[in-house]
Amino acid sequence: MPREVAADIVILGAGPGGGALAYALKDSGAEVLLVERGGFLPVEPANWDAEAVFGQGRYKTSEHWFDTARGAAYQPGNHYWVGGQTKMYGANLQRLRLEDFDALEHRDGTAPAWPLRYDEIEPFYTEAEALFAVRGAAGIDPTEPPRSAPFPHLPIPHEPAIEALVETLTKQGLRPHPLEMAIHWNDSGCNPEVPCTGCDGFPCMAGGKADAETQCIGPALASPTVRLMTHTQVERLHATPGGRRVQAAEAVHRGERLTIKGSQFVLACGAVNSPVVLLRSQEASWPAGLGNRHDQVGRCYMLQNQSALMAVDPRRRTALTMQKTVGVHDFLFSTPDAAYPAGALQTLGKLTGSMLQTDKRFLPAWLLKILAERSIDWWMTSEELPDPDNRVRLGTGGRIEITWKPNNEAAHDHLVTQAKRMMRKAGYPLIFHKRFGIAANAHQCGTLRMGTDPASSVCDAGGKVHGLENLYVADASLFPSSTAMAPTLTLVALSLRLGRLLAGA
Ligand SMILES: Cc1cc2nc3c(=O)[nH]c(=O)nc-3n(C[C@H](O)[C@H](O)[C@H](O)COP(=O)(O)OP(=O)(O)OC[C@H]3O[C@@H](n4cnc5c(N)ncnc54)[C@H](O)[C@@H]3O)c2cc1C
Ligand code: SF4
To answer: Looking at domain 3-42+78-503, which of 3.30.365.10, 3.30.70.2860, 3.50.50.60, 3.40.50.1460 is its CATH number?
Structure first.
């Protein structure tokens, strides 16, 4: 017989979705159990070693998923740790725009409306920004939505090369804004003196990054009613006879099989693993998997269209350390050349020669170092539209299969053109550009989307799975559209909102 553990509320997955929910429930009086397949990410010198992090994928999962379009397995950019992907994230925390909550016309189709209004989520955005100690300045970005409170902290100051760039871009008629960042700037080991070029893709050795472990799970565990089980992988859920409620989760903890019982269950394993758990949970009453009566589980997998751009002026060094302080949203909903949305620009964590070397092994290290010392680097995101044929499935032997064909790519190409033009005008004549594909799944979302119609969605607007009384979702799977914004603040806000509901349940 498997060992049994029990709690009132069982949260499966300790990323930002599950972590923020545990935080929201810490004073509710309910016994909360967080179940996480990974352990704590070690703080060690390799955290900032580009070869270890990017070259060898030290913190990435070793598992492979199957790309059905190419007919080949690939290693996804997924990280299984307490804190989920936020241990590696770039710490840019943005609100969605008002336009994202309505149906939005794109070059290649329409992004659907969300089943909730901005003003319903706004108080939770404010709470989420406070929880993650976000830095920013309101009133500069023309696309920003209304806010009921100022940013909790002032923005990170620009270094001289970025200050000069902001001036040039402003003269071009653009409206660059201070990037919204979740970093304990100067209040921790993160300051201009540390030999770290930014959070993007690296764990933090200095205790500076505000991630789901530091901001949510750590504080939640200080409560006597919240417990965490690490190294515990959930395999499937079991429903009661008749299939109206979930009665248990089946998991494996370091080789030992466990039955986890609870009154409420919340799935927060991320946008691929949450649907996988449901698809594995087949019962007589749910033959295609729990919540999957209408064959919607796993559909509409979205990653966003994403690229990096490196603009080089060979004549001068930029001497940048903390580059990730500016965003440009002038092309978000239209451009001077097109009436459709193109996307968002933000500076990246500073690229270095050793980071470039992990991707361009055939180029000499000295050349890459010279280029990186003279560049300003950007991250570019455009919306990808929900396509029901882009989906997560279980294949032969239970392997995870991903079918993904990107869309709205012409809009992204247009964004890249605008960014190149902007940087050439700013005095950077050499431009390099890299497009990311299926394995760069940082912003994965959409596979258990919220909606009002059970025939075309998996969850309702509160995150409850249609047809099940006590099963909720609290992660990026809920997103009905990918938007061009960074996803984490929104999924944290949704979890805080769900926490309010479950605390009263
Ligand atoms: C390099 C990188 C940079 C990024 N930069 C940004 C950024 O700047 N801003 C931003 O907003 N977003 C950023 N993101 C994206 C952001 O980190 C994710 O959107 C966010 O973490 C998703 O949260 P989640 O709760 O949906 O899933 P996850 O973060 O994936 O959390 C899911 C958790 O569930 C666990 N789990 C999975 N399967 C199981 C199972 N079967 N049993 C038990 N536990 C399980 C996982 O280990 C994980 O801890 C970045 C991501 C990456 C990888
Ligand atoms: S930039 Fe600061 S917060 Fe980010 S990883 Fe480096 S030291 Fe940590």
So the answer is: 3.50.50.60
